[in-house]
Amino acid sequence: MKDRKLLNSELGRVDAATYKTLPPSGTVLILDNIRSAHNVGSAFRTSDAFKVDKIWLCGICACPPSAEIHKSALGAEDSVEWEYASDTLSVVRNLREEGYIIIGIEQTENSVGLERFKPESGKKYAYIFGNEVDGVQQSVIDECDLCLEIPQFGTKHSLNVSVSIGVVLWQTIS
Known about the structure:
- The chain has 174 residues and is α/β, with parallel strands linked by helices.
- Helices cover 29% and strands 20% of the residues.
- It contains 6 helices and 7 strands; from the N terminus they run αβαβαβαβββαβα.
- α2 links the parallel β1 (27-32) and β2.
């Protein structure tokens, strides 16, 4: 089978200024103490692809401008709105007051398999992704409305946080 790759100019992508004028998706990400700037950059790039409204960078997360973030984000740090907060809990509580459903992406006693979760149209969701070693802080899990778990079938019990972000956004937004 012969199939020609499309050129970037044929993809009809919007520029960063136009991206910011698109209707909101109702989805935000909260990154809870992500230690790798490359993972933060990947979060920006994936968020751009799925039209996430905003990324909250909490705790030890690196923030733009950063060469390491830019290396993975490829400019998406300029299209996706972001804000830094030292305390993840305050962000969670503020978003709840704004009407967001707070969802931790974590393996917990009562987590729901991602494949069983169906977001409701018209509702706003805040997805929390945690530190590469320790995951989402327990104090943050305690504030969640729900925890989702990505089904896994191998010997490992976790995915890279940037991979998890892609899986969750594809499943919940597409």
